[in-house]
Design brief:
Layout (H helix, E strand, L loop, with lengths): L2 H20 L3 H11 L5 H7 L9 H37 L18 H15 L3 E2 L5 E3 H4 L19 E2 L5 E3 L5 H9 L4 E10 L11 E11 L4 H16 L5 E6 L4 E10 L16 E10 L1 H6 L8 E8 H9 L12 H5 L6
Helix pairs in contact: 1-2, 1-4, 2-4, 3-4, 5-10
The protein binds 5'-O-[N-(L-tyrosyl)sulfamoyl]adenosine.
């Protein structure tokens, strides 16, 4: 073998082994392999070029070239293993999960305080023999007003600032849950005992005790011998169950076209202990709802004979009751959707 070929191979060997020692990671190793042993690598090209050598030099040069090839392949094999293992270690370290760290607690939702109150009210009334039913929030004026003895020209129709729906006929967002009185009685033979929780809508100014959308609980009992004493007994028992034995309750005469007589039902204000505050408007009392004996015209309007049947009805503000239970002093907080507020009342009822 000519000295120059021998020298070239020696130089190639020294350089290749030095470069391999310098390849510190898997990508650098891949480049090394391509440079020396790949299809266009230096050693491959040398071996391919053997045919160009004089015939007498070819065997020796071929043997030397193949010996170098085996040496470099063996060196690459062992270096490749080391680099691949290091590469794996690095990936494992980067992706490692520290099983000793505490887990992230899952966020568990809770029912809205008003929904909790509705559930609690349904349970209390179930024990008193009332069934819970639901009705439409978009209502006809016929049910919202007419069947409740509030004819088109009656001044009582102005009592509620009504949100009208742009549909043929007189369609409104129900201003109270009372339209369900007529809907239930039309579908049911007496005796009747139902409560109806749900949203109601009024186009009115908001303050600490007034929202434009809020919830009411309607109650209706009709039978042959229902009296005002039954109404007072049911509402007194409700207040006792909800607020404990120490809250005082008050009934005062009030007017609603669909009852005769009518009352307003109030509880002494739990926010200020009855001393007077902005929630109770300095009166010491917070009105929970209106109530009364169902007007004979309402009974007759749904086909009940007022000479045979009597009934009581009430409509209570659910946010107001929730305020009394929780001490929240602004009704607007309930629909404000602030989780910092809502989280405080997870599971209060
Ligand atoms: C009266 C007699 C019955 O035989 C049956 C029902 C009724 C109640 C009647 N339908 C009514 O809506 N009366 S009310 O206008 O006085 O509202 C009842 C209760 O809803 C109020 O006492 C109050 O607790 C609550 N409320 C009224 N406006 C509110 C409100 N709560 C929050 N925001 C408002 N804007």
């Amino acid at each position: 073998m000519a000295t120059s070929v021998q020298h070239d191979l020696e130089e190639l060997r020294t350089r290749a082994l030095a470069d391999l020692a310098d390849a510190v990671d898997a990508p650098a190793g891949e480049i090394w392999e391509k440079t020396y042993l790949g299809p266009k690598g230096e050693l491959t090209l040398f071996l391919r070029g053997l045919g160009a050598l004089p015939a007498d030099e070819r065997p020796t040069a071929g043997r030397a070239g193949n010996a170098l090839k085996r040496e470099l392949e063996a060196a690459w094999d062992s270096r490749h293993r080391i680099l691949a293992a290091a590469d794996l270690d690095q990936h494992l370290a980067a992706d490692a999960v520290d099983v000793t760290l505490p887990g992230r607690p899952p966020t568990i939702g809770a029912a809205h305080p008003v929904s909790q109150m509705i559930d609690e009210l349904s349970e209390i009334f179930a024990l008193l023999g009332f069934q819970t039913v639901f009705g439409p929030e978009v209502e006809t004026a016929h049910y919202n007003f007419d069947l409740l003895n509030i004819p088109a020209d009656h001044p009582a129709r102005d009592v509620w600032d009504t949100i009208h729906v742009d549909l043929p006929g007189e369609i409104v967002m129900r201003t109270h849950t009372s339209p369900m009185q007529a809907r239930v009685m039309e579908q049911t033979e007496p005796p009747v005992r139902v409560v109806v929780p749900g949203r109601v809508y009024r186009y009115e100014a908001q303050d600490a005790s007034h929202e434009w959308m809020f919830h009411q609980l309607e109650g209706l009992a009709v039978d042959r011998t229902i009296t005002m004493a039954d109404l007072k007994g049911v509402l007194a028992e409700l207040a006792r169950q909800l607020f404990g034995p120490n809250r005082r309750i008050r009934f005062r005469c009030d007017f609603f076209p669909f009852v005769e007589p009518g009352v307003d039902f109030a509880v002494d204000c739990a926010i200020c202990g009855g001393k007077g505050c902005r929630v109770c408007k300095q009166t010491g009392w917070l009105e929970m709802g209106g109530a009364g004996m169902v007007h004979p015209k309402v009974l007759a309007g749904v086909g009940y004979d007022p000479a045979v049947y009597t009934g009581f009805a009430f409509g209570l503000g659910i946010e107001r009751m929730t305020m009394m239970r929780t001490g929240v002093d602004d009704v607007r907080a309930f629909a404000g959707n602030d989780l910092r507020f809502l989280r405080q009342f997870a599971g209060f009822a």
